[in-house]
Amino acid sequence: MPAKTINDIVALCKRRGFIFTGSEIYGGLGGAYDYGPYGVELMKNIRNAWWNAMVYSRDDIEGLDAALISNRLLWKYSGHEAGFSDPLVECKKCGTRMRQDKMKDSKKCDACGSADLMEPRAYQLMMGLSIGATTDGATNAYLRPETATTTYTNFKNVLDSTPHKLPFGIVQIGKAFRNEISPRGFVFRMREFEQAELQYFVKPEEDEKYFDEWKNTRMAWWIEQLGIPADKLRFTPHEKLAHYAKAAIDIEYEFPDGFDEVEGIHNRQDFDLGSHTKSQKEFKINATVLENTDSITKLSFSDPQTGENFIPYVIETAMGVNRCMLAIMHNAYTDEDLGDEKSRIVLKLKPNLSPVKAAVIPLARNVPELLKTADKIVGDLRKLGIGRIELENSGNIGKNYRRHDEIGTPVCITVDHQSLEDKMVTLRHRDSMEQERVAIKDIQKKLLEIINK
Fold first, then answer.
1. What confidence tens digit (pLDDT) does each residue in 45-67 have?
2. According to the model, what pLDDT value does residue 386 have?
3. Is residue 272 a contact partner of residue 155, using CB atoms and an 8 Å limit?
4. Shortest CA distance to 249 belongs to which of 218, 273, 203, 287?
5. What is residue 126's predicted lDDT score, i.e. its pLDDT?
6. CA distance 345 to 402
7. Is the pLDDT of residue 112 over 60?
8. What average pLDDT score do residues 173-200 get?
9. Integer Cα distance of 264 and 250 in angstroms
10. For 52-186, where are the alpha helices, taking DSSP H only?
11. What residues have CB less than 8 Å from 113, skipping those under 6 apart?
């Protein structure tokens, strides 16, 4: 049985060290969370799976890691400073503030049901900073609300240092910050979150072709690389397009409360490079952009075959890494009835995503020979460099199995008294709970087969 509510996932995350409430000992802070020992590992594995698919498996994409704090002019010309806001409605009766586009009933308060509401007003989503000793607290920089804009402003740097023909892309994984007035859904909507974004630069006449290609490529990644069933995912086109977009569609996952966005694919046309380029009038920019009098670089592409110099279009894929983790955990969460009034919670994660790849368990913790053998196995498995390998030495085999079921460890390897004689161990599989005897000399090979399948 899957998780009935997100609260099931929240409880597991706290109990097993995936996610904790930020600043918890001081009462917490809305929309802020800390990632514990296993949350760190799962997030890292998601990043690796994404980076492998985007960069290591292709020849046309480069990586970037840009600063979190940027010159204010980036956000002026991107349109964020003037227009990056949400319309908020405040209830006069209870004081609750709600995003107008997320209200259940636009005429009633979500919290108390009152119809006594204030008119919507804009609320700035960017987090302003005061940098320097003489700013008197005035905002002169921002924490980035996305990774995309710093990718566009590095377009020429990447192109000059690693020459490419069109199409080619630049990816980033990193933190972004938004002044969300109503964080919700655990780690679904936060003030500090992580994005994995691709900006794919194409010839203007090829934008629709690559928009469709990336739409299908990204959906396939969710299904094949993350193990999410196709019937738990869907495409949802945007009913209303952003001012920069020619087309936009979301990949949505079915959470307990219904489908919601986990990744967006957008045809941003030439808005972004056109907004930040020097000498805008030299180019035929189709999007409506703010006149830029501050840029010192032309963000254009010169076609070596035709000699044409133009502003490329951008196809963007933007995934929320935190949302991805939440979807993966929800999909993997299984409450199994074992009969005889017994049950177990198990995270049926794909092995390559599992926070712990294997647990080695000496059957008795007070037998030095068992511990020595277990230590040797752990050392040999760690040499594989495939991730975290744990030594469990509590002596309670049943509790060890249950703990590793809950954190998604694919296999547990038990060293028992017979192991000292026949040089074999018991390998217990997470999903089926089946056990098999495997020669110690074959454990490395066996684990690699499990992780890579």
1. 999 999 999 999 999 999 999 99
2. 95
3. no
4. 218
5. 77
6. 8
7. yes
8. 87
9. 4
10. 72-77, 80-83, 148-152, 155-161
11. none
Q: Looking at residue 29, what is its pLDDT?
A: 84
H or E element at residue 214: helix 207-224
The distance between the two most distant Cα atoms of the chain, rounded to a whole number of Å, is 81
Strand duo 301-302 + 309-310: pairing: antiparallel
Helices (H), ranges, 264-390: 271-276, 321-332, 368-382
Please check the confidence at residue 132 and state whether its pLDDT lies above 90: no
Please state, for a pLDDT cut of 70, what percent of the chain lies above it. Answer: 96
Structure tokens at 258: 């219904």
Q: Is 346 within 8 Å of 297 (Cβ atoms)?
A: no
Domain regions of the chain by residue span: 6-75+155-329, 354-452
- Looking at every residue in the chain, the average pLDDT score rounds to 91
Measured CA to CA in angstroms, residue 29 lies from 33, 111, 288, 342 at distances of 8, 20, 39, 38
- pTM (predicted TM-score): 0.88
What is each CA distance from 40 to 45, 180, 243, 358, 369, in whole angstroms? 9, 24, 36, 17, 33
In angstroms, the first-to-last Cα distance of the chain is 25
Amino acid letter, 42: L
Q: 285 in helix, strand or coil?
A: coil
Q: Hey, what CATH topology would domain 354-452 get?
A: Rossmann fold (3.40.50)
Tokens at 244, concatenated:
């920069």
| Other Cβ atoms within 10 Å of 354 Cβ, number | 27
- Give the E-state strand segments of 6-153 in sequence order: 19-21, 33-35, 61-63, 69-71, 85-90, 97-99, 121-124, 127-129, 141-143
Here the tokens at position 246 are 């020619």
pLDDT value, residue 131: 81
Q: Using an 8 Å Cβ cutoff, are 401 and 428 in contact?
A: yes
CATH fold match for the domains 6-75+155-329 and 354-452: no
The strand order across the sheet containing 411-415 reads: 388-391, 356-362, 411-415, 424-429, 435-439
What class, spelled out in words, does domain 6-75+155-329 have in CATH? alpha beta
User: pLDDT: is 28 or 64 the higher one?
Assistant: 64
DSSP states of 217-263: HHHHHHHHTT---GGGEEEEE-SS--TT-SEEEEEEEEETTEEEEEE
Which of the residue ranges 127-136, 343-352, 402-411 would you say has the lowest mean pLDDT?
A: 127-136
Residue bearing the bigger pLDDT, 291 or 90: 291
**Exposed, middle or buried by CB within 10 Å (0-12, 13-18, 19+), for 16?**
buried
In the predicted model, what is the mean pLDDT of residues 424-442? 96
Mean pLDDT of 177-203: 87
